[in-house]
Amino acid sequence: MEYRTVAATEMIHGISHITIMVRNLDKTARLLCEGLGAREIYDSRHRNFSVAREKFFLVGGIWLVAMEGAVSEKSYRHIAFQVEKRKLGGYKNRLTELGATMVPSRPRVEGEGTSVYFYDYDNNLFELHAGSIEERLERYKH
């Protein structure tokens, strides 16, 4: 099936930010900062401009928002951060120590990369992935 592509001037430039819902912002901040190396850059505790209290983080150059609110059930819907393969073990150890729920990786074919999956305290699923889309597409060709 073919799809019509919009003009280059109408295309998306990238991801602005990602928002996750959490019950305890401070607990989540510790997981993100100590577990993933995020940097907290904003806390609306004293001046809220949104629908609920929120904290902003930079994680690998990505703006991640954690907002207090109702959390969802566990699913495979997730956020994947790219990391170096040699650092996966260190991340896994830190996240386990912080109480994240580690999840076995899905079955993989050789050459599509390596991942560590974990749920935060509020059923948000994260993946730390060592591999690229180019490597995965090349593997899927064969």
Could you give a short description of this structure?
The protein is an alpha/beta fold. It has helices spanning 25-36, 88-97, 133-141, and strands spanning 18-22, 39-43, 54-59, 62-68, 78-82, 101-103, 114-119, 125-130.
| Mean pLDDT reading | 91
- Distance between the amino and carboxyl termini: 22 Å
CATH architecture: Roll
Classify the fold: give the CATH topology: 2,3-Dihydroxybiphenyl 1,2-Dioxygenase, domain 1
**Structural domain count:** 1
Question: Quick one: overall form?
Answer: globular
Q: What's the CATH superfamily, by name?
A: 2,3-Dihydroxybiphenyl 1,2-Dioxygenase, domain 1
Strand and helix order: EHEEEEHEEEH
Tell me what portion of residues adopts beta-strand conformation.
25-35%
CATH class category label = Alpha Beta
Q: From the alpha-carbon coordinates, what is the Rg to the nearest angstrom? A: 17 Å
Number of separate strands:
8
Helix content: 10-25%
Give the structural class.
alpha/beta
* Poorly predicted residue ranges: none
> Count the helices. How many?
3
What is the topology, as strand order, of the major beta sheet? Answer: 1-4-3-2
Please give a structural write-up:
By secondary structure, the chain is of the alpha/beta class. The chain has a single domain, classed as 2,3-Dihydroxybiphenyl 1,2-Dioxygenase, domain 1, CATH 3.10.180. It has three helices and eight strands, in the order βαββββαβββα. The protein has helices at 25-36, 88-97, 133-141; strands at 18-22, 39-43, 54-59, 62-68, 78-82, 101-103, 114-119, 125-130. Strands 1-4-3-2 form a four-stranded mixed sheet, covered by helices on one side. Strand 3 (54-59) and strand 4 form a beta hairpin. Helix 1 packs antiparallel against helix 2. The radius of gyration is 17 Å and the shape is globular. 18% of the residues are buried. The model has no long low-confidence stretch (mean pLDDT 91).
